[in-house]
Amino acid sequence: MGTVERDQVTAVRQFNRFYTTVMGFLDQGLLRSPFSLTEARILFELAQREVTEVGVLRDTLGVDAGQLSRTLVRFESAGLIERSRSEADGRKLLVAPTVAGREAFADLDARSDQQAEELLAGLTDGDRRRLVADLDSVRRLLGRREAAAPRAYVIRGLRPGDLGWVVQRNAVLYAREYGWDQTYEALVARIVADYAEHHDPRRENAWIAELDGRPVGAVFCVRKDDTTAQLRLLLVEPETRGAGLGTRLVAECIAFARSAGYSSMMLWTNDVLAAARRIYQKAGFELVEEKEHHSFGHDLVGQIWRRDL
User: Fold this and answer.
1) Which one, of 202, 213, 32, 203, lies nearest residue 108 by Cα?
2) What percent of the chain has pLDDT over 70?
3) What is the pTM of this model?
4) What is the CATH number of domain 153-308?
5) Is residue 289 classed as helix, strand or coil in its secondary structure?
6) Where is the N-acetyltransferase domain (predicted)?
């Protein structure tokens, strides 16, 4: 490998000092939040899946066991997590984020996105591209020893081409998994087109979940009436299900709807979508109405779920 030269060490340390200052890592609360950098990092990892084993969390983050334990106690006291013992192995402690915990993470995630956007806004398009490429080089060079680490999802706003992807993936997945016909694709296309043409950015929003730079999930928050938001078109690709991505997308919707001034949120779904129903129940939604209907080539039972914000 060769000997590391002193000026190389100095250059790395200089960059570390510069980066921690620019990103505000030394501030009392990260991104003007009540969380430290370590607490925010722990919250991020917990939000990536439904349940996390404490030992796995400790190994992933490389954090001191005592510090992790104290942080989890604080999180539990604040209602951000729930702790339990593994039914398979009582020696293992499990941690699951609550709805409040996922909402806290969604808020931190939005603040982090805003900070990055503000940093990049002062650069030309060419400089932004060079910066991103250089950051990728740093991650690739220093991350070789961590190649087996869990992959992280990114929740972002819409980009050109995303709306077409939402229509296409809804049509393909619901035809494959439930045998729904093209009338469902037509419904999704109308919903997406209406959003694109008429949405109010102050009161409506949509998100794409990415893994390794490709979309793997989506959700929309639209206006139902002046006081009610509607969650629509929740989608998670089959290979990424079970990692808490659907729960995270729903939490993003709830946090936005609350900040937009809505007092309640509703959604329409069908009883055959059992996995989605479990996500809605965990997020605090309650079933308020059911009605039989024939749609998409099948006899179905439509359901309306609602929760206060």
Assistant:
1) 32
2) 94
3) 0.54
4) 3.40.630.30
5) strand
6) 153-309
